[in-house]
Amino acid sequence: MEFFKRLGEIDNRVIYILLILSLLIPLMKPLGLPISVGAHTRRSFSVIDKLQAGDRVIVDISYSVSGAADVQPQAVAILKHLFDKGAKAIFVTTVTEGPMIIESLVKPWEQAGKRYGVDFCNLGFLAGGENAIAMYCRDIKKAYPTDYRGNATSELPVLEGIHSAGDVKMYIFFSTQNSDMYVRQVTQYKIPIIGGLINTIAPQAEPYVNAGQLAGILVGLRGGAEYEILMKSPGMGVASMDAQSMGHLLIIMSVVLGNLSYFLTRSAKPVKKGAVK
Amino acid sequence: MSSDPKVWVASILTIMAYSYLFKENEFYKAMEHLYVGVAAGYTVVMGYTNVVSKVWEPLTKKGSWWVLIPAVIGLCLFAPYIGARYAWLRRIPVAVIAAIGAALSARTAVTEQFVQQLRASMISLTTLDNVIIALGTLATLSYFIFTVRPNPVLRAGAEAGKWVIMVTLGAAFGAGIMGRISLLIGRLFLLFQDWIPLIKPR
């Protein structure tokens, strides 16, 4: 009983150190735990895999730097899939950090020979959140007279013949916010929508997938890892999975032991005068 | 160790941020102020760029004078800083932003979030998944019925609905923890791969 009592009074800092070690050790010495690919990721992969060379896709990179660790592996994997298929990406963003993140994502592809303005473009930040999404979906060149690099959008070959979101083959968004606004503003254009989401908001998007309003979603770092496996191109997502599993194991153990300690020592604690029993 | 000064700065700031876990200290406070300052500075630059590309250039290069209308409405947000007697002007842009946002959302919210979700709930009860979805939806809805005097059936439904809500919130909480772990892993990659090469790149 004394053991459980002391367990309940353990210093938070011990748990922090254990958590960091449980993540760091598998990153240094991978355990090779198997990673199964979930239905959401498979669905997203098969939808994107149907794209043809030359098809144009709007990619909204609206995640903040603070959430990048959860979403960036998804974006990297999907971008590789798009460019491998020969699709063209029209990048937009409604968060201020977005243009900088887009530039970092396209840099390796630009060095590998993808041409700015022809294979992709970065239209930059548009203020207004949901209003901005509605605006660029309705008339992309009006919403963005110039791109992030200062070119007139009317002169970009990748935007030739594109007026609204209905003129592209697909809409992909990566976001640290909820998916409601994308469903409200993009589904009316009747194009497949794929969402790359952080773990926290993914449960909220499930009803939209079940209703067919979202063609697929990727959920957090795990979704990125699963996509990397389907792409046969393991990256940061796959490398993180062992660590994430061990971190979860530690948290589950902490929850179980914490509850055991509480329930086993509860009866031993003196009840304060006037306290509700 | 990395020779990139940017990696050094990011790593030291990360350690300063996490030092809060030990206890609140001056390094953490300094980093917190720096973070807020950098974020504010970046946002100001983005705002300035936005004004140049959306207002100044169309006005001076194309003579699109009508861009001045939203620009002036936007400037009214700063009216309280001129003097308290002008503070009321701030209500105009706030009203415009709220009205446009509400109108845009309301236009599609009914079809996409109400009708489509209702349609998606009308499913054939041929699989266990569908049965769980249907019963879960009914139970959750019954929890929120407050206008009918409770009877045993409604009470049982509400109790089941409470459990469905708890499971949903539990899933959301679990997903939240998973997300936080991912963020920590991202920082560990910076510290122990980019800065001190203890994690081998795959």
UniProtKB/TrEMBL annotation, chain A:
The chain crosses the membrane at residues 14-33, 246-264. Keywords: Membrane, Transmembrane, Transmembrane helix. It comes from the Bacteria. The keyword Transmembrane helix applies. The keyword Transmembrane helix applies. This is Uncharacterized protein.
TrEMBL record, chain B:
It comes from the Bacteria. Keywords: Membrane, Transmembrane, Transmembrane helix. The keyword Transmembrane applies. The chain crosses the membrane at residues 7-22, 34-53, 65-82, 88-110, 122-145, 165-192. This is Uncharacterized protein. It comes from Candidatus Fermentithermobacillus carboniphilus. The lineage of its organism: Bacteria, Bacillati, Bacillota, Candidatus Fermentithermobacillia, Candidatus Fermentithermobacillales.
